[in-house]
Design a protein that fits this description.
It is built from five helices and nine strands. The two termini are about 30 Å apart. With about 210 residues, it is of the alpha/beta class.
Length: about 210
């Protein structure tokens, strides 16, 4: 593709669409557009995470890292109306879509921000992410380390990664870096990794 979904200001022409997220007791119709991740359908990795992740905490700060047009963030917000959901992305078009999708769904507990926003909390009780693996292995590890270090005590992260894009090596790196990383689910070439525990190996190479 000529322009990646993790561009901060997509220049590709707008091509609005919609995607339906249907889960037990929940139906969301989300507006999408070109220049964001998987704009024509709910991708299989995100679907797997939504199918297997346990219910989120009822309160606290919950993070959707790399929110795209918002399927993970909005499900978190709908399932945990007493929590604050932080939808984070470098892509401003994605943030605009997530914000409008949350407003249309009546989910006032979603806050859409860039990764360096000063209002972001220092700790998160839960992280859900379909991370941008195509930024490259080194950049991805730096990205994940920074956010996983902000897990609150007792918190957990659920990361979905394709096997052929490095899920197994990512799991090994997470464990070597001091987190507890276990495979929570696998389907159709995707792996969901559950990450817990505080990193304890100082100076681990990225």
């Amino acid at each position: 593709m000529s322009e990646q979904y993790f561009a901060s200001e997509p220049s590709v022409a707008h091509r609005p669409g919609s995607v339906h997220v249907i889960l037990p007791g929940l139906h969301l119709e989300l507006g999408t557009d070109s220049g964001v991740f998987s704009p024509r359908r709910l991708d299989s990795g995100t679907r797997l995470l939504l199918d297997i992740a346990p219910a989120p905490p009822a309160t606290g700060n919950l993070l959707d890292l790399g929110c795209g047009y918002g399927p993970l963030a909005l499900v978190l917000a709908a399932r945990a109306p007493g929590a604050r959901v932080w939808a984070v992305d470098v892509n401003t078009r994605a943030l605009t879509l997530t914000s409008s999708n949350a407003a249309r769904a009546g989910l006032a507990n979603v806050t859409c921000v860039l990764p360096d926003d000063a209002g972001l909390p220092s700790r998160f009780d839960l992280i859900w992410s379909n991370p941008p693996v195509r930024i490259g292995k080194s950049a991805l590890r730096v990205l994940l380390a920074g956010w996983l270090d902000r897990l609150a005590p007792g918190g957990a992260a659920f990361l979905v990664v394709q096997r052929n894009l490095g899920s197994d090596s990512l799991q090994r790196w997470l464990a070597e870096s001091g987190w507890i990383a276990e495979r929570a689910a696998a389907r159709s070439g995707y792996r969901v990794l559950k990450v817990t525990g505080a990193r304890h190996l100082a100076g681990t190479a990225q």
